[in-house]
Amino acid sequence: MKQQGVSLVEILLVIAAVGIIILILGNLPNSISLIGRSNHHSLAREVAVKQLEDKRAITYENLSYGEVAITDSRLNLLPGGSGKVEVSDCDSETVCTNGEQLKKVTVTISWKDSGKDQKIVLDTLVGVGGLN
């Protein structure tokens, strides 16, 4: 004798499987967006670190004060990407309290993600004879 029809257990299993698929597909756009943001953040950090390394390779005496735009081609991969490097005197009230000869180098990378402004700021100090 053959049974025809669908049992209640089979229906519940199909409903559970469909629910799981809907849950996965519903979170997929958010996951893709998070991956993109993470890639942008990593790229911005790479550009900033490279700029800091380049400035630290310059001697204290040859490191000129002021602000300069970054021309790294990787900034074009960031939506609305731009950057600047600023060289200034060390803060004499908090860091250079004993008159140390140090220059502060600040790298700022800016871009937009989902219409929101994003920014990474990295600082370093360059001194006469290096930092020890």
Can you give a write-up of this model?
This protein is of the alpha+beta class. The chain has one domain (8-127). It is 37% helix and 27% strand. It is built from one helix and four strands; from the N terminus they run αββββ. It has one helix at residues 8-56; strands spanning 66-69, 82-89, 102-113, 116-127. The protein has a four-stranded antiparallel β-sheet with strand order 1-2-3-4, with helices on one face. A hairpin with a 2-residue loop joins β3 (102-113) and β4 (116-127).
Concise structural overview:
This protein has one helix and four strands, in the order αββββ. By secondary structure, it is α+β, with helices and mostly antiparallel strands.
Strand and helix layout:
Layout: H1 8-56, E1 66-69, E2 82-89, E3 102-113, E4 116-127
Antiparallel strand pairs: 1-2, 2-3, 3-4
Characteristic terms for this protein:
132 residues, alpha+beta, 4-stranded antiparallel sheet, 4 strands, 27% strand, rod-shaped
Q: Give start-end ranges of low-pLDDT stretches.
A: none
Strand order of the largest sheet: 1-2-3-4
The rounded distance between the terminal residues' Cα atoms is 90 Å
Number of domains: 1
What is the string of SSEs from the N terminus onward?
HEEEE
User: How much is the average pLDDT?
Assistant: 88
The count of β-strands is 4
Structural class of the secondary elements? alpha+beta
Kindly estimate the percentage of residues that lie in beta strands according to DSSP.
25-35%
Number of helices: 1
Helix content: 25-40%
Largest sheet: 4 strands, antiparallel
Cα radius of gyration in angstroms: 27 Å
Shape designation: rod-shaped
